[in-house]
Amino acid sequence: MMTTTVDGGPRERAALGGIEGLGDAELVALVLGTGCAGLPVGVLAAELLEEHGGVAGLARMGVGELAARWGVGSAKGARLAAAIELGRRATLAASLAASPKLPDGHAVETWARSRLATLDHEELWVLALDGRHGLRAARRVASGGIHGMHVGARDPLRVALREAASAIVLVHNHPSGDPSPSDEDLAFTRAVCEAGAVVGVPLLDHVIVARRQATSMLDAGLLPPARAKALAPRGASALRGPW
């Protein structure tokens, strides 16, 4: 079977001008490597992006869905899914290495959007903060949705204590596109807030991200009134932001 390769196309342009100069379709074509009879790889890449609404939609595709598409198959589907996952992991590793500050719900939303907003399933993460609201660690504690994950208040707090966190923030995604908290979200948040106050690790916020919007339970006034106050940074009397 005749195949069309990317030699002389995106691969050559990447070598000459740098990978960052390539468009989305060219990057997808590089990962796929070849097209198939009657379907050049550049056309296949462009069609995949168009069918799924661009890079964000393509990132929500699983290996099986990609492999089932005519012209892709299991090997190319696995390569494409692996490239997307490497991008997610690189973003997470870079954010942790930089020790970002998370002073408010907006900063948490920015941190979470590239990691969670495109997923087709729910994931719950706990962000362990130091006394200056720097990110000590980010750990996924459950996957599949709060209501169906059988996750309890002890799960994020176990991470917080292991990481010696001064405070924590919860963050999870809603694949439906609606970031409004469910009854299960609210009940779980109350339980974590109360348990955190007992062990001395306050819950500062619970942020829910969707594809285009996000909800901060703190900003929405949905955290329990008894929420413990955030620890002030050592050597400073005031910390800007709602925390």
N to C succession of SSEs: HHHHHHHEEHEHEE
Discrete helix count? 9
Strand content of the residues, in percent? 5-15%
- Overall number of domains: 2
Number of strands: 5
Largest sheet: spatial strand order: 2-1-3-4-5
- Structural class assignment: alpha+beta
Low-confidence stretches: 1-7, 228-241
Radius of gyration: 21 Å
Between the first and last Cα atoms, what is the distance in angstroms?
62 Å
Q: What would CATH call the architecture of the largest domain?
A: 3-Layer(aba) Sandwich
What is the fold named in CATH at topology level of the largest domain?
A: Cytidine Deaminase, domain 2
The CATH class of the largest domain is identified as Alpha Beta
- The CATH homologous superfamily of the largest domain corresponds to Cytidine Deaminase, domain 2
Mean pLDDT: 83
Helix content: 40-55%
Overall morphology: elongated
Largest sheet: 5 strands, mixed
Oligomer category: single chain
Describe the protein's architecture and organization.
It contains 9 helices and 5 strands; from the N terminus they run αααααααββαβαββ. The protein is α+β, with helices and mostly antiparallel strands and 243 residues long. It folds into 2 domains: 10-92, no CATH class; 102-216, 3-Layer(aba) Sandwich (Cytidine Deaminase, domain 2). It has a 5-stranded mixed β-sheet with strand order 2-1-3-4-5, with helices on both faces. Helix 2 packs across helix 3. The chain is elongated and about 65 Å long. The chain starts with 9 loop residues before the first helix and ends in a 27-residue tail after the last strand.
